[in-house]
Write a structure and sequence with these properties.
Two copies of one chain form a homodimer.
Chain A lengths: L2 H4 L14 H8 L3 E5 L2 E4 L1 H19 L4 E2 L5 E3 H7 L1 H4 L5 E4 L5 E4 L4 H8 L11 E10 L14 E11 L2 H21 L4 E5 L10 E7 L5 E6 L26 E16 L1 H5 L3 E3 L5 E3 L1 E8 H11 L17 E5 L5 H15 L4 E3 L6 H11 L3 E5 L7 E6 L4 E6 H11 L4
Helix pairs in contact in A: 2-9, 3-7, 3-9
Amino acid sequence: MKQSLLFVPTLKEAPKDAEVKSHKLMARAGLIKQTSAGVYTYLPLAQRVLRNIEKIIREELDARGCSEMLMPALQPRDLWDESGRWDQYGPELMRLKDRKERDFCLGPTHEEIVTHAVRDYINSYKKLPLALYQIQTKFRDEMRPRFGLMRGREFIMKDLYTFHENQEDLDVWYQSMKEAYTAVFKRSGLETRIVSSDTGQIGGDEADEFMVMSEVGEDTISYCMSCSYAANQEFSGLKEGDACPRCGGTIKTAKGIEVGNIFKLGTKYSVSMNAYFTSREGKREPVIMGCYGIGISRTLMASVEQHSTDDSLVWPEELTPFDLHVIPVNYRDQEVIDNVDAFVKRLEMDYRVLVDDRDERAGVKFKDADLIGVPYRIVIGKDFKDGKVEFFDRYEGVKEVIDLESLESRLKTLYNKD
Amino acid sequence: MKQSLLFVPTLKEAPKDAEVKSHKLMARAGLIKQTSAGVYTYLPLAQRVLRNIEKIIREELDARGCSEMLMPALQPRDLWDESGRWDQYGPELMRLKDRKERDFCLGPTHEEIVTHAVRDYINSYKKLPLALYQIQTKFRDEMRPRFGLMRGREFIMKDLYTFHENQEDLDVWYQSMKEAYTAVFKRSGLETRIVSSDTGQIGGDEADEFMVMSEVGEDTISYCMSCSYAANQEFSGLKEGDACPRCGGTIKTAKGIEVGNIFKLGTKYSVSMNAYFTSREGKREPVIMGCYGIGISRTLMASVEQHSTDDSLVWPEELTPFDLHVIPVNYRDQEVIDNVDAFVKRLEMDYRVLVDDRDERAGVKFKDADLIGVPYRIVIGKDFKDGKVEFFDRYEGVKEVIDLESLESRLKTLYNKD
């Protein structure tokens, strides 16, 4: 892919309202562009990373028997009246009327829609379990949108809903989804900690949050430094350094960014919205539900927060928008252009390659490349006519001049290709 | 994939408001579920087909130098005031206020947002051309939502915007995108006809629409039966059987479903929204734009319309949600289950397999399979213990009993695998 066509509007200065490192860097690296408070366009580089995160999520969920669907953003009031949430939800719920003055909201979550979708179908225990997810845009009219993608008003979520005939089956799936989440965040290059938490207004019994430890996190969590156990309810009132009620270890307090959460919803929606099935014993029972979210746009931001300095970024392996960044320091003479293009074409047979074809000074190209964050960089300079390039492994911070044959075997090793 | 986990709520009867064949069939086949007038959930089978259409679009556009991004649905009034469309647009535009009483709309198209995104960047001819697209949910509050996905209020579009330094460059890209669209619809198994058309309220010079000929189309188009030329403006007033002004051929009138359109927008948005660049001659000029849409959910529906009868559907090769549908007529004894599962596991190494693991009568399974529309079906009956299955090629309408070795080579031939 030619960088001139990709649209990467890098900036020298971050916008004034950007307070945290990742927000500043995402704006400067040409990843996002704000259109109104808390509402962003994901520019091509960010979109490529989002699609990588989505791919990981789909793989981990599909492998565990989940099915993907796509529900609408426009949700009719009648379904929200059934669940009671139309009146319960505050001004975060974006409401609107259609041309016939009927009430709608823009979905912040989809419990009502998914329960409506399945309730006629799940008439028997034979139709259970079901695990349905979507990757979709959500809306929440935050009082104070801030920190870029961290607290936005329009954001991308993966939301999953599971349906069960009994508590034991929910427990099995809940555990399986916990493992899926752990795998998703690990593959996304994020270190997360699981915190047991309140269920808040979604209701239900048990819940866990996946937190990325970060100075800019908005949630304060407490965990035991000895046994790593973290439970906000149990530790409420305890301060850093206090003894832990569980094992006598010491309490540590830190900030976290919540990137995922899983809830045992129970029968809140099935009872209020009449989603009943006939059990193995022939009894009519409300279906038992679980719900599971991942903030995809927030995961993108958390990844930038974890993998950047003030002026540079290196994407984790599975999230990087390109495998290789080829930078010809002189891309003017037709002969050089032809040779570089042929070289890139060969690389593109095996790798996703970004080539900086712009007529810019080398310094400009390098600064932009630091922001763009591709982990392996190939600089094409004067030695190229002698079959040599500079190879920069940004994970290791090592630069070396290398001949094209060695480059090939190096890349094969790095990407496990033969 | 096990059918019991996929969530395919097939129905015996279509909903009462379904008027056209494809809408009835999509509801009966468990592809879509209405949540309010003109607003649908895409159930797992439909989502798989949508993702196939999206993959084709991405491949054809990326190969021609386009970059994918993702713009927000929530659009602030101030940008629509710049273009003048806030006042021009009728009640189809869904409007809402946020908690601070600021005006927003839900985007029916994204000219304002994309022009805002690029205008600071494209300060020089060196930054042009650019071709930016997204696959995203759109909103239009239709007076009479109908025909299922054909005229919905929330729908999935691919919208692409191109930016050029002069008319010649726009012409080159316009032609290239026309070719991309032709490829997209051909690969999607749709026969389309290109019709030159009015530009309507988007404004600009030249426009073409991609129409799928269909009895249920909402647009009437006229074309010459001799030269295949179709131009609504030129033919306005001409009736079926009239002589064609171009070549003397005969005019034919037919109904069409518009699945794509391409416009030469010109400078309407760049002038009103101040998107100027410095030309090669050092002059400040408004950037020249093109815009290009594909109705993705509508393409799904047009495909169902073209490839179905009242009770059955066969997906085109590149759209089918699965390659193979395996139907064990008896899936009860543990020994049979184990053998079938092992057989499916081997197939899944090379193909996307749906296996009907439900405890249902064979007749029910076959009827559902006809609706689900997978082109190749493998029925596992009593002969399976002797190494034989029934293979049903639904494209050809041919069923035959076949041994497992022949099945393997047959599938390799059909899918060009070796």
